[in-house]
Amino acid sequence: MKQFFAKNKNRIALACITALSFLLGLLFLGQKDLSLDEVATAIIVQNFSSMLHILTYTEGNMWLYYFLLHFWQGVGTNEFALRLLSVLFGTASIPVIYLLSKKLFNTKTALIVTLLTVVNVFFISNEQNARAYSLVLLLTTCSSYFFTMYVLSFLKDKKMQKKYLLLTIIFNVLGVYAHFYTLFVIASQITALLLTRKKELIRSLLYYLLAIGICLLPLFLAPSLRGQPTNWIPVPGLRNLIGTILILSDDFPPVAVLYIALFVGVFISLWNKRKQLNLFSITYWNIYYLLIGLILPIVVSFLFSLFIKPLYISLYFFICLVPFTLLISYFITQIKKPLLQKALIISLVILSSIRLYGWYTGNQYLQVVISNNTEDWRGVAKLLGTDKNTSDVVLFFPPFVQENVNYYLQKNNSNFDKKKEINLQPGIYAGANGLKNFNLQQLLEIPLHYHSLWYIYGTYTDNTRLKQQKLINQMLAKNYMLQKEVKFYNLTAYYYIRK
Q: Which of 92, 143, 238, 460 is most exposed, with minimal Cβ within 10 Å?
């Protein structure tokens, strides 16, 4: 038995880390209501024909995930079941991260990076999110693994080059269909390929780009891509960059200090070895590739958002988590004192565990960017369901709050009369332009027809909706008296009676 464990200790360790990822993903998985974006996901995938229409004309992102989740609904449609698919994708990514890390560096680095990844709140929060992010992590990590194999096969086994390039293309295409930020992964690979300075490898870029471009034509030609689903995204600033650093560093200042110090150590180490650098030496090309994969998406997205169109969202840089953690793990293995190595790993795991406690409990003192305090749609639905006879009408703002509350009214089998609801902007989804189709006349006629009303307000107002919010507040102040105010997380219910 001892011989078996000694021989298979690395596989056993990987199996334990993978199991830990799965267990941490399952922990309290269905405890809280779906978040704003998760409800949008659940509504989109409910019906196949309406999903096709939405993806074609409204939602130009995450197509692959929506298709997979639609068929996954056979498992269940409650919070636990909808999020479980993301847990499986996140868990499946751990062995791939291990293979990639082992190929780029060594087994020790691979084990460290997988351990630090599964206790990182950025990883767990996306693993427990009914969105496409854990799927994207799995696909982009597979792409990175086969891309690495493609580059390294140039040195050893050229017969396998075409196979690895084909697999890289396939996973990149799937990744883009899962989330547009995969395009930054593709750009990073192109840059890393150019750094090899090998003509044979660089010539393959033509086939690489052509194949990807052809496969993505349906997505690029879809009317939904020409919509404006990112109008809610503000122009980024220094605060956003700091937020990105924080979430990659476990969204917990004590851990972030250690991570940032170790990351600075990577650059110091490279500077000390600058005379030995060779762009195509595996000892250094792998580090360049990881640095490009980490820095390029953040910098390009930031500059694009400043000068062309805002699309910088810190939470989207889940694609950068593996390069960042892998560089940190590699540097730890380069520390010559074994006791210091172990102390650093133990410290990071303990501090990450404290942050995970904050995630699971929703403790607001242990969170900076990533929050697990989801909107209380169920509470609002219960309020309307039990208070159905006290008001003449219900008004929602922003308009997509209505759809989310109705989702939970339906799940609760409430007898609430939806005919009482007023929709000033029918068909408006969360990312749509707030100025579109606002029915001002209907708003002004509310006092003429209704003696009392509930006003359900969600704190999601962006700059495109400030005008409408002001008009609603003016109408209420002029014609109604506030009788009751009930606060929920990110939602408030106001009960008004006409003056």
A: 238
